[in-house]
Amino acid sequence: MKELLEAEKIVPVIDKRFPLSEVAEGMRWLENGRHHGKVVITIKSERVERE
């Protein structure tokens, strides 16, 4: 499956995205069966420079 994803022969369907701060709402979305694809929780990444 990894090869098919990398070759873009199959593409996951993303139904909805939720920020990490709304993960509870995202879980409710899944539990209620309203999704028609993947539900994604986004995590904002901030790079911190180290001295």
Name the features.
alpha+beta, two-stranded parallel ribbon, 2 helices, 27% helix, flat
Beta percentage is: 15-25%
How many distinct helices?
Answer: 2
Order of helices and strands: HEHE
The total number of structural domains is 1
Low-confidence stretches: none
Helix content estimate: 25-40%
Q: Major beta sheet, specifics?
A: 2 strands, parallel
Taking the alpha carbons of the first and last residues, their distance comes to 41 Å
Shape: flat
Mean pLDDT: 87
Instruction: Give the tally of β-strands.
Output: 2
Q: Looking at the chains present, what oligomeric state does this protein adopt?
A: single chain
Radius of gyration: 15 Å
The largest beta-sheet arranges its strands as 1-2
Structural class: alpha+beta
Give a quick rundown of the structure.
The chain is 27% helix and 22% strand. With 51 residues, the protein is of the alpha+beta class.
